[in-house]
Amino acid sequence: MKERLLELKAEALEKVANAGGVKELQQVKVEYLGKKGPITEVLRGMGKLSAEQRPLIGQMANDVRSDISSAIESKQATLEEAALEKQLEEEKIDVTLPGRPIHAGGRHILTSILEEIEDLFIGMGFAVAEGPEVEQDYYNFEALNLPKGHPARDMQDSFYITEEILMRTHTSPVQARTMTNNEGKGPVKIICPGKVYRRDTDDATHSHQFTQVEGLLVDENVRMSDLKGVLNVFAKQMFGEDREIRLRPSFFPFTEPSVEMDISCKVCAGEGCSVCKGTGWIEILGGGMVHPNVLEMAGYDSKKYTGFAFGMGAERIAMLKYGIDDIRHFYTNDVRFLNQFHKA
Fold first, then answer.
1. 187 vs 18, 125, 175, 306, CA distance in Å?
2. Which SS3 state, helix, strand or coil, does residue 196 take?
3. 287: three-class secondary structure by DSSP
């Protein structure tokens, strides 16, 4: 048995020395030190030995196990160190190379414009109100003085889900809901930003989905001059102090009288150019005094309360402010376009 143990030790140490990797070394460990290994087989035959030989062979077997185990641990440390050195050499970093820039994201231009508009009107005492994009026909049309059969209710203009439910075509329903919730009591001073939907052919200036910001002020003794003052402040803060405004008569079912607002062209300063089509003015939004029918349907006494309302497209504001020539740029997610406005 002594000779067999020495023979096994020599074989194991030779295989440990020749092992080329950690996996191969583990196989040697299992082969010689495992429960089914040859050393264990030798120890199972110790019952045939005399009482004097058993402790000697037992001690020798333990020493052989210990020597093989120590050799394996030493070899494994050497192999792991060599593997680490190889990995470090292969993954060596040249610290003199310039760093890779981190491209940080930013607010979408429409988000920035909406926040700018909201901050502007909040500064004038308006609150921000929101409502559902899937709207009832009543609030979208009837409560705004648009009875059944009105051309604006045509199925070609609106996305109807049922006869009484549709995707809102403007944010005016938020105004109607807010007035109705107030039950005809007290003033209302809100802006209503949000997405709206209409059946339209997408091109450079039209989209089936766009963003509106509408405003409403209802109180006692509200006049057209108040509307003009608010819009004048808006135009100058949004487009520059040198911008002038003008109001032209128009028609909207929910306001009477109604107006369209133009701002002086910033390209030609009102002299006339291709941008303003030679007029010196650019149409920007619509508004007017809230129709008495709208006030009455919301529960307000139209003899006591008056109000004004206005509405604008956020995309149009952004296009005019930054010289953007195609509304589709806002929705195509072209990073070359979006990166221009990260600081906007």
1. 92, 12, 12, 10
2. strand
3. strand
Q: Please tell me the distance from the alpha carbon of residue 128 to that of residue 109, in angstroms, as a whole number.
A: 20
Q: How far apart are CA 30 and CA 14, in angstroms?
A: 15
CA-closest candidate to residue 248, choices 235, 238, 263: 263
Query: What's the half-sphere exposure (Cβ side, CA atoms, 13 Å) at 91?
Result: 6
Q: 211 - beta bridge partners?
A: 195
Token pair 């549709």 in the structure block, residue: 166
In this predicted model, what pLDDT tens digit does every residue of 41-62 receive, in sequence order? Answer: 666 666 666 667 667 766 777 7
Chain mean position to CA 320: 25
Sequence-distant (6+) residues with CB within 8 A of 262 are 245, 246, 248, 281, 282, 283, 284
Please name each of the domains of the chain with its CATH number: 2-90 (no CATH), 109-341 (3.30.930.10)
Place of tokens 């509408």: 214
pLDDT tens digit string along 89-124?
Answer: 888 777 888 888 887 778 889 999 999 999 999 999
- Whether residue 306 contacts residue 220, with contact meaning beta carbons closer than 8 Å, is answered with yes
Residues 6+ apart with CB under 8 A from 197: 133, 158, 159, 167, 168, 169, 208, 209
This prediction has a pTM of: 0.68
Question: Could you report how far apart the first and last alpha carbons of the chain are, in Å?
Answer: 88
The answer on whether 214 is annotated among ligand-binding residues is: no
- Two tokens at 55? 């402790």
Q: Which amino acid is at 331?
A: Y
